[in-house]
Amino acid sequence: MATPFDPADLPTGILTSLSPLVHRVLAPNPSPFTYTGTQTYLVGTDDLAVIDPGPDDADHLAALSAAIAGRRVVAILCTHTHRDHSPAARSLSKATGAPVVGCAPLTLEDDGPRADAAFDADYRPDRVLGDGETVAGSGWTLEAVATPGHTSNHLCFALRQERALFTGDHVMGWSTSVISPPDGDMTDYMASMQRLLDREDAIYYPAHGDPIDNPQRLVRGMMGHRKQREGQILRFLERNGEGAIPDMVAEMYKGVDPRLHGAAGRSVLAHLIDLNGRGVVTTAGDGQWRMR
């Protein structure tokens, strides 16, 4: 369940120190799906990594330039290629000379209502980081942690010196992540969540929402939430024999703004695809689903 949306919660364009090595600048792109906006992180002191540079917005780029304050930028890292995360990488790279590294390029048009930003078709990294590969600067090392699910190319970045993890949209501080097929994959998402649960990170820095200082508890809760949704789907099909996604959404998301029901249907579809892959449900034709 998302935290109530209030774009005034945090000021945009202000450099905020969160730890000796981690600093944040909030982009001016608040919405019901980005919360207060995209949080761009600056890692380091003498030289810097910039994580999720955000939208290609002139005011945000000016704020980042002021925050960098002439220091050397070692790398510009992107967790994934939705347009609220990666487009500013191009302008920032041109201004600083730093390479764009991180996730692989991915452009995909899906056929359903979106509850997040569309893909950045112009993203061209200088280097794609594989799982476990690193970028380092003076006093810091960032390690790529592959976390597909929200998107197939999603990476988190682990800051070894502070046992911190930059989680992009995989784990957010205000809402569960959107899983929208065909690229969003519930099976991959749950496996990635289990991977994070097995780690020993002390704090998460998400792209949207507050830092998370008890991350394993939140991950367990989010996995439990997905299992509850799965249980609702199975009970619906067991009770009704078969059913279509709009009927499931109407029952499962009572009290939710009907304008969000299309996006909720994408999540239900992701669950059904996962359940089908596990041999639990199957399609029954004409948009209907049933138990196997």
Automatic annotation (TrEMBL):
<dbReference type="InterPro" id="IPR036866">
    <property type="entry name" value="RibonucZ/Hydroxyglut_hydro"/>
</dbReference>
<feature type="domain" description="Metallo-beta-lactamase">
    <location>
        <begin position="37"/>
        <end position="208"/>
    </location>
</feature>
<dbReference type="Pfam" id="PF00753">
    <property type="entry name" value="Lactamase_B"/>
</dbReference>
<dbReference type="InterPro" id="IPR050662">
    <property type="entry name" value="Sec-metab_biosynth-thioest"/>
</dbReference>
<dbReference type="InterPro" id="IPR036388">
    <property type="entry name" value="WH-like_DNA-bd_sf"/>
</dbReference>
<dbReference type="InterPro" id="IPR041516">
    <property type="entry name" value="LACTB2_WH"/>
</dbReference>
<dbReference type="InterPro" id="IPR001279">
    <property type="entry name" value="Metallo-B-lactamas"/>
</dbReference>
<dbReference type="Pfam" id="PF17778">
    <property type="entry name" value="WHD_BLACT"/>
</dbReference>
<protein>
    <submittedName>
        <fullName>MBL fold metallo-hydrolase</fullName>
    </submittedName>
</protein>
